[in-house]
From TrEMBL, chains A, B:
Domain annotation HTH crp-type: ranges: 149-223
One Pfam entry name: cNMP_binding
Protein name: cAMP-binding domain of CRP or a regulatory subunit of cAMP-dependent protein kinases
Entry-linked CDD domains: CAP_ED
Amino acid sequence: MTSAERSPLTRKLSAFVALSEDELAVLERLHQRRRSFTAGRDMVHQGQSARVAYILSAGWVCSYKLQPDGTRQIVDFQVPGDFLGLRSVLLRTSDHSFEPIVDIEAAEVLTSDLLEAFTQTPRLATAILWAASRDEAMVVEHLVGIGRRDAGARMAHFLLELASRLALVGMGSKEGYDCPLTQYHLADTLGLSAVHVNRVLRQLREEGLVTFRDAHVTFHDYGGLVDLAGFDPAYLDQTGPLLK
Amino acid sequence: MTSAERSPLTRKLSAFVALSEDELAVLERLHQRRRSFTAGRDMVHQGQSARVAYILSAGWVCSYKLQPDGTRQIVDFQVPGDFLGLRSVLLRTSDHSFEPIVDIEAAEVLTSDLLEAFTQTPRLATAILWAASRDEAMVVEHLVGIGRRDAGARMAHFLLELASRLALVGMGSKEGYDCPLTQYHLADTLGLSAVHVNRVLRQLREEGLVTFRDAHVTFHDYGGLVDLAGFDPAYLDQTGPLLK
């Protein structure tokens, strides 16, 4: 088994398409330039002209936009198997920043590598487009969450989405998952204050639904949380033998 | 000049790449199945398994998600030259609904047509990916707007973004543009009530910045509105001789 076969990205794409030996080889070559980044130090700055993307193989990253007044909106989190900056490869500037939440391992992918891989194996291109479409569907869900869900449903939806995403790469289940996010991350994601985040998490715990403590999320009543959030995982499009 | 050379999509993609005769011909073939849709009647329903996308050639469409409680979050609008449902082509279900705001003209594109076009002309594929990346960047901006901008800046940003997008297809300028949206559309987009939308628009008018009346947006002080919104059009990536 090659390293690409074992990579989280390979596991993820396999939920969409069964990759051939040739396609796996092309995917492996995309993993060649391995790099490490330190927690808390930005990898790509908003406004930077960065024609490079990364495939995250270990650790968590957040992507965010700073507002002129200094407030921060977290757009999304990346977990192993996710692309970072796939969008920026084609736009002429990066429209947001990436910050590793813990020390991470990632493979650097140049625009030219990606376009070459697309030309060699259209099916792999389609699989990567699938992953990009899924990323966009998540951003849409976050938009709906902030626009239309109350704080409890918003938090529940967010914790359930992470569980599904992590399950796809073998790092989560209906029991729970390890999660390095702080209350400040949650606040900047959900458009709440850190105090409000605290209160919402206490309420969900007291209702016997979920506990987030000591960097671990534990589901006590997965079905109850799904009902509270109105969580329908169809937008994640992972109809394999996972959480659905 | 062929019809595809004249199409709004061709104008838009030309901001990214100069298309060859061959590529224009492939693009033209994507425009073959022309269809009309009536205002107010959904084209694609949330949850529908729709392996078809559309290229909008005339009229406006909104894409939205309904929440279990019946409230609606508008995710984005599509104007001539935009794809509808490009994401749904790869995901197994449509993650939102599309409603024509006025009577529209669109070309139907099957998944198979699109993948065939991608294989024939990787450069055209890249241009379409650019358009998809730009669409996602807009959704990110809307997320930031709802999460972090006050009502005035949110409205100003939205009206400015539409001006840039319409300018790209010759339908808007720094003077203004025709706009068929109602206050209910604005409310469901910006996470405000219709009453609040009214108040914000009156305020922007009284400050001498912009008037939205009788289906037309008129900029009185474009620069002032840009300042109020903190609008940086870099995320739209249209460095041609347009609004920037």
